[in-house]
């Protein structure tokens, strides 16, 4: 165990003696460790994370959002008498009662309880699982519809502002600092060809047809923990990007990560496509929790949201490839270009099936009318 991990863990109110710390998870941004302690009452496990402060430039704001959201959800579940109240994320405080610890190098660290008997999946293989993941993110959104205390902080400004993401891409393309543009002409052309869709949701917000809510904004399928024995949702994790946002951003990222069976960096693009039974399952699970509060403008754009968020992610990966892999962690050269290529293929697959996807969404929501 690295000595600095031990000394950082020692800042927090852990139960028992720390016996193990291992790198953990598949996130691209923060550094995560699984901690194991031995306590009189048995083994206690925790998750220690270092917040990437180049990405999250105001860690205290991130932590305040997380404290508010986790406390609110636990309070609501307890009031409902739900057994899940005891299986949610809890921030473990430092010895001086703070939600986080800042080390001498300026890094911000936090600790959560480890939710036991639950696991996450990077890709989903059955519609039943997709339905449950979507139900959980819909549930999470519903839980936050009455979050007291006003809007949460915008922890990354313009996070899903797709026109802004496009502008940033065009700027790095103009500079082409690594001379990589020549190696991805087809992908660059695809971005330019589809750029017109970037502002569509924000235009609807401006026209008052789509409300800004408190949303998760990073609804990868592996951000839902599922009970290992029942395969039902337990809690939603990765709360750094909880911000004012659109429910469609949350649904869109589920389409991106749940309907495709290939990994995000798959090199065999023949494996990348939008699977309709998975989309239908997402709509059913999401609708079950959200039909009471989504507007008709939102319900009509579920397929579009999948296309837009996948396109936005393509733009982000391609921009990072051109920039020299400065944002997303990579494990091999060219990985961000591979990621951009899977997203492009998935956008194409959604475009081919968009009419059928819309018909499914209409028929699911019609059942609640
Ligand atoms: C990043 O680190 P991770 O895997 O939770 C990114 C998301 C992207 C995702 C793509 C703060 O999330 O927005 O959708 O990678 N998070 C941030 O896999 O940029
Ligand atoms: Mg994340």
Write the layout of secondary structure elements.
Layout: H1 3-9, E1 17-23, E2 31-39, E3 42-51, H2 59-79, E4 91-92, E5 101-102, E6 108-113, E7 118-119, H3 127-143, H4 162-175, H5 185-194, H6 200-206, E8 213-215, E9 224-227, E10 233-236, E11 243-245, H7 247-258, H8 276-290, H9 296-299, H10 302-323, H11 335-366
Antiparallel strand pairs: 1-2, 2-3, 3-6, 4-6, 5-6, 7-9, 8-11, 9-10
The structure holds 2-acetamido-2-deoxy-1-O-phosphono-alpha-D-glucopyranose (GN1) and magnesium ion.
Summarize the structure.
Helix content is 44%, strand content 14%.
What is the helix tally?
Answer: 11
Helix content: 40-55%
The portion of residues forming beta strands comes to 5-15%
The span between the termini is: 57 Å
Mean pLDDT across residues: 97
**Unreliable residue runs:** none
What gross morphology would you assign? globular
Which structural class matches the secondary elements? alpha+beta
Run of helices and strands: HEEEHEEEEHHHHEEEEHHHHH
* Largest sheet geometry: 6 strands, antiparallel
Looking at this protein, list some descriptive labels:
single chain; 369 residues; alpha+beta; 11 helices; 44% helix; globular; binds 2-acetamido-2-deoxy-1-O-phosphono-alpha-D-glucopyranose; binds magnesium ion
Describe it.
- The chain is of the alpha+beta class.
- It is 44% helix and 14% strand.
- It has 11 helices and 11 strands.
- Strands 1, 2, 3, 4, 5 and 6 form a 6-stranded antiparallel β-sheet that branches. It has a 3-stranded antiparallel β-sheet with strand order 7-9-10, covered by helices on one side.
- α3 runs antiparallel to α7, α4 packs parallel to α10 and α8 packs across α11.
- The mean pLDDT is 97.
- The site of 2-acetamido-2-deoxy-1-O-phosphono-alpha-D-glucopyranose (GN1) has 9 residues, from loops.
């Amino acid at each position: 165990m690295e000595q600095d991990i031990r000394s950082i863990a020692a800042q927090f109110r852990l139960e028992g003696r720390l016996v193990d710390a291992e790198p953990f998870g598949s996130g691209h941004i923060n550094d995560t460790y699984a901690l194991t302690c031995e306590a009189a009452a048995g083994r206690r496990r925790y998750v220690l994370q270092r917040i990437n402060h180049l990405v999250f430039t105001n860690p205290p704001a991130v932590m305040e959002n997380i404290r508010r959201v986790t406390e609110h959800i636990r309070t609501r579940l307890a009031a409902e008498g739900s057994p899940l109240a005891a299986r949610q994320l809890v921030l473990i405080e430092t010895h001086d009662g703070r939600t986080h610890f800042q080390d001498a190098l300026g890094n911000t660290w936090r600790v959560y309880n480890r939710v036991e008997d639950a696991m996450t999946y990077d890709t989903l293989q059955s519609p039943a699982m997709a339905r449950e993941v979507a139900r959980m993110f819909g549930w999470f959104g519903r839980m936050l519809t009455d979050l007291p205390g006003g809007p949460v902080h915008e922890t990354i400004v313009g996070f899903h502002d797709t026109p802004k993401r496009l502008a940033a891409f065009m700027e790095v393309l103009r500079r082409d600092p690594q001379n990589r543009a020549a190696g991805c002409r087809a992908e660059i052309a695809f971005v330019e060809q589809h750029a017109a869709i970037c502002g569509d949701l924000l235009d609807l917000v401006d026209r008052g047809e789509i409300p800004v809510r408190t949303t998760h904004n990073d609804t990868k399928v592996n951000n839902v923990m599922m009970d290992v024995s029942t395969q039902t949702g337990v809690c939603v994790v990765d709360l750094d990007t909880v911000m004012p946002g659109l429910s469609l951003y949350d649904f869109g990222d589920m389409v991106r990560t749940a309907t495709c069976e290939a990994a995000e960096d798959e090199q065999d693009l023949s494996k990348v496509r939008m699977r309709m039974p998975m989309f239908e399952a997402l709509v059913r699970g999401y609708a079950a929790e959200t039909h009471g509060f989504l507007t008709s403008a939102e319900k009509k754009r579920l397929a579009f949201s999948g296309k837009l968020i996948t396109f936005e992610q393509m733009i982000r990966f391609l921009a990072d490839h051109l920039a020299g892999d400065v944002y997303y962690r990579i494990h091999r050269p060219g990985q961000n270009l591979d990621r951009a290529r899977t997203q492009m293929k998935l956008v194409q697959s959604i475009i081919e099936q968009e009419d059928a996807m819309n018909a499914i969404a209409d028929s699911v929501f019609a059942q609640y009318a």
